[in-house]
Amino acid sequence: MILPIIKYGSPILREKAFAVDPGDYYIAMAQNILQSLKNAGGIGLAGPQVGLLKNIFIIDTTPMKEEGIIPIEKVIFNPEIVHYGDDEVYYKEGCLSIPGINEDVSRAKKIEVRYRNENFEVREEVLDGLVARIFQHEYDHLQGILFIDKLSSIRKKLIRSKLREIIKTQKYHYTSK
Fold first, then answer.
1. How far is it, in rounded angstroms, from Cα 47 to Cα 38?
2. Which residues are known catalytic residues?
3. pLDDT tens per residue across span 38-91
4. Which residues contact 167 (CB under 8 A, 6 or more apart)?
5. CA geometry: angle at 45 spanning 40 and 47, to 5°?
6. Domain 11-168: CATH class, spelled out
7. What residues are paired with 89 via a beta bridge?
8. What's the pTM?
9. 66 to each of 62, 63, 69, 145, how far by Cα in Å?
10. Quick one: pLDDT at residue 172?
11. In what order do the strands lie in the sheet containing 73-84?
12. CA 113, CA 127: separation in Å to the nearest integer?
């Protein structure tokens, strides 16, 4: 089922998500979020962005294969970032919940992570490059953090009117735990 993408201004985007457990119909959750992500043409989507306050997100780099990016599709439940590498890089990020705004954000180039996969098995990996960036961006969503929170105060002032426009045009959807 394709779920609507929650836009900037909705309070759910500022809340911390809760752990997923095996009794949560986690397979259906993942399928719905994946369908919603593919429908929107994005490369990452977290539970809160579709009104679900659960620790789940999907990474799908398939839309970027024309740019030479290796297609990767991952279902991530209950993620943890175990370690952030020392090197940080800037890259222009966008977000399905904040349409029309793309800004340079600094993030760790390499991270060590632990999560449960689509079979709810624990996985530990070292991620780098684009996949590490997507993981960090989506992980932030589970903490109630948006990429615009990482911008300088000057950049935030420059996009303030665009953010107000997003808020004006939204109908909010909210799903509790």
1. 14
2. 138
3. 999 999 999 999 999 999 999 999 999 999 889 999 999 999 999 999 999 999
4. 7, 8, 9
5. 120
6. alpha beta
7. 107
8. 0.93
9. 9, 7, 7, 30
10. 53
11. 44-46, 56-60, 73-84, 110-116, 122-128
12. 7
